[in-house]
Task: structure prediction
Amino acid sequence: MRLIRQILTSFILVSSITSLKAQAIKWTEIEPGIWKAVAGSPEKFNLLTASGAVAAHAGLTDMGSTAFPFSATDISAKIIDGKTYLRFPLDRAERLYGFGLNFKTVLQRGKILTLHVDNYEGKDNGRTHAPTPFYISSKGYGVFINSARYIKVYAGSAVRTDSKNPPEVQDRNTDANWSAHPYSDGVEMLIPAEGVEMYVLGGPTMMDAVRRYNLLNGGGCLPPRWGLGFTQRVQRLSNAADVANEAKAFSERGYPLDFIGLEPGWQSKSYPCTFEWDKTRFPDPRTFVQEMLKQKVRLNLWTNPYISPEAGIYKQIAPYTGSHSVWVGAVADLTMPQARDIFFKELSTNKIDIGISGFKIDEVDGGDEFLWPDVATFPSGHSAEQMRQTYGLMMQRYVTQIYHERNERTFGLVRASNGGGSSFPFVIYNDYYDHRDFITALTNSGFAGVLWTPEVRDSRTAEEWLRRFQSNIFSPMAMINAWESGTKPWTFTEVAAQVKQMASLRMQMMPYWYSEFAKYHFKGIPPFRSMVLEPGFGDGELSKNEDNGNLKENPYGKLTIKEVKDQYMAGENLLVAPMFTGETSRKVILPKGKWFDFYTGKYAGNGEVISVTPGLDKIPVYVKDGGIIPMMPVMLHAPGKNEKVDLEMRYYGEKPGYYMLYDDDGETFDYEKGSYSFRQIKVELKNGTLKGTISAPAKGKPNTVGRIVFKKMG
Ligand code: GAL
Result:
């Protein structure tokens, strides 16, 4: 066997080294508009096998097929020196997006990256919480490399001597426009493995490619309704009484609260973790959890996966752990069923089985200084690198599976994910705390198949607190993470009323958020995403400007293109333009088509850059013409399973409005068996009077829609 492999490998080596021509790759359409190919001998363990993702065939069939976006012979692969070399063509005008959860930049063309799961350290260099090997081109296609390796990417930055479209040779002596970064006509990638599986996601639009990617992953996650409410994480060493008091304070003050997050102190020891309740702080976990549930407050438990030698499971799991510890805790080899049985049974026992609703899976990303090193080995034979790229994915997969088996949905937090993870009901967060960069991450999350929350922890001023809070409300998880600071929504008294108003707005908008997540699940449309995916946005303010035109001071400067990273789309109808501390006004780029102010319904503009001065109370939000936002009354907790709620359909603009309102029981996985409906809402203005209709409820399906009022805004 080994000999045959050696002969085969050397054959591939010889054939690739001797042939200067690109080898033809066979692309097979595996789902409508998705093509798969392999180069060399791909590894069995990859992002899709680690995540267990199964393509959402129904959603992909609905989209139909499309043209293969390349000339197949322009894509090349070679195996040299045990590594796979890939090259995809690039036109002069193409812009590239994606390559994971970036925090500072949206445009990725020209970048050199190493896609590597890591804690974000302030540089968009490929090391991030979700370094998804997926890129999207402005020409309307996507490329996904299904490898659990650290992938080196040259995203249009390198020039081959045999290039079909070589850059022009310039003379620096005479040419003032001489560039240190000549035009490159390819995206090149180096995968440290003797083969790889890759996918091309067809368009024709960028949004189509993104949708196909998410559907290939099984469709985006559908959180329970309560997951879209408000959540507060308490201080590290809080006890059962503190948590109960926290819930009481929220209720007495009238602030919404759906779940409370317990931080490391719920465990008897951490870190490393025992995964067992601390008997002094939580003497009777079962009663405590049940008492909280009676008050409609669910609980989410922090944990990292590093197993203390003092944990009850330590001895049993030890044979299935890696060679190196993390904070002196053992690292379970989650690729082994034996390790999984022990580890996830522990997370279930006295936790999920007494009513814990979810987890915050911490520190599965890195940094290098505390995580297992690349020289670590694991009993299954998977490398440290493969484990690093997939640990967050596997933790999400198996936690989700426990809840799935109980037919209860969960919604939690995780600090690392990767390609293959779109369907997991987890939101990424981190310790980095730059408000602007948090918003850029939100715009990029939609390209990476992940959800991201710009969490609020603490602030220097009331202004900063409110500004951060406002954008947090328009994100996948509305959360204060007070694990250290103990901050409450009302801590900054000057803005406590405004914060309460925003938290209440979050609750009112639940029918909208829920429907938009259903579109993520069934259609693959990311609920939070970049403006460039919005029709009519075009290139926004894209214009060439040199980062430093002075050749003397910056002789190797790059031509940069202005990118739009401080405003984003939230669901089908909303454009959100956060305000940052110190700002009293800002520019907002409105795509083509009429846009209306979310709060007043007043006309705001059409395909133009507007300047707004919203005041401290408001975050600028705009609704597209004909947009409908379904709202419910302010509730302090999400409606319960199958609970009927009255709705107000806010209608904006002039065009006839259509909206698909999603409905199901809100808590179980019965929707997977068809127990859901999309109800069509139509609104028209006829001679100045508003006429609204909703399609009849589907027979035998959950119906949580109570009375409906249609309201014209503005
Ligand atoms: C950090 C995490 C914080 C908090 C803290 C508790 O790693 O990012 O949100 O949970 O651990 O120790």
